[in-house]
Design brief:
By secondary structure, the protein is mainly α. The protein contains two helices and no strands. It has a domain of about 40 residues.
């Protein structure tokens, strides 16, 4: 037989104090837990994309600088004096 909280309303509050995880079974508790899990699952790949974009832009800038330096060197070596 299940405990009847309607006959003893004070036991409902005591039950939530004794079992703090009882709120995760409510709709709002499940929603909050789902939001936290989704944030953690999506957060990792988003940080990784940011790191990869910074590395890519750094590599691209290095390639552009190398090309400019090489073309300047070739122009100075091949110039007719």
């Amino acid at each position: 037989m299940a405990w009847d909280h309607t006959r003893f309303p004070a036991t409902r509050q005591v039950g939530s104090i004794v079992d703090p995880f009882r709120t995760t079974t409510t709709t709002s508790g499940r929603l909050a837990l789902l939001v936290v899990i989704t944030t953690l699952v999506i957060g990792g790949p988003l940080v990784n994309v940011g790191v990869n974009l910074r590395a890519m832009s750094s590599s691209l800038a290095c390639g552009v600088e190398l090309g400019r330096n090489q073309s300047t060197l070739m122009a100075s070596c091949c110039a007719v004096h």
